[in-house]
Amino acid sequence: MSSEPPELWLVRHGPTEWSRNGRHTSVTDLPLLADGEQDAIDLRARLADVGFVQVLTSPRQRARRTAELAGFPDAEVDEDLVEWAYGDYEGLTTPEIREQQPGWTIWEHGAPGGETPAEVGARLDRVVARARAAAGPTLAFAHGHSLRALAARWLGLPASEGRLLRLDTATVSVLGFEREQAVVLRWNA
């Protein structure tokens, strides 16, 4: 184990057609838009000199392609990094869902036919454990809601507290420690 405290670097994939227009996208495997590919290439310089001991990616093509273009073509696919399963709400926008379910949020209610906040938290706990056991920084390429929930779990909070952490496409965030306390070192940069 390294004498340095563990760090978990998070990269949300570049924009897709559905992320651009607010449609919930989990299992629908959309490609990056052309500007999303350029955003991923632009991440390369920001990540190149970190010395990651493990690089993980969601199996979805938007995350894998972001990893590849950012300079990590051999990122290990980790099923635990998939986006929150939206079930019956796949492809819908929040306003469309709220026409049927006023006041709905993924953070409080989950999705019928999809995952609850507790289920998302349980699988992301495995990612936290992997990163904390690593002998150096870990890099993870994934999705908006799952990465926000992952940050909450890193901090020891319920996955639903990811609601407090806005996360834009093609951004870098860093989780780590201050002394023995899990903290956010950088967010949505």
Number of strands: 6
User: What is the terminal-to-terminal distance?
Assistant: 28 Å
Query: If classified by CATH, what would the architecture be?
Result: 3-Layer(aba) Sandwich
Looking at how many chains there are and whether they match, the oligomeric state comes to single chain
- Give the overall shape: globular
CATH class: Alpha Beta
How many domains would you count in the coordinates?
1
Summarize the amount of helix as a percent range: 25-40%
CATH topology heading? Rossmann fold
- Residues in β-strands, percent: 15-25%
Low-confidence stretches: none
**Count of runs of 4 or more consecutive helical residues:** 7
**Average pLDDT score:** 96
Strand order of the largest sheet: 3-2-4-1-5-6
Order of helices and strands: EHHEHEHHHEHEE
Protein name: Acid phosphatase
InterPro entries: His_Pase_superF_clade-1, His_PPase_superfam, PGM_Phosphatase
Structure at a glance:
This protein has seven helices and six strands.
List the helices and strands and how they pair.
Layout: E1 8-12, H1 17-20, H2 34-47, E2 54-57, H3 61-69, E3 76-77, H4 94-100, H5 106-109, H6 117-133, E4 138-142, H7 144-154, E5 172-178, E6 181-186
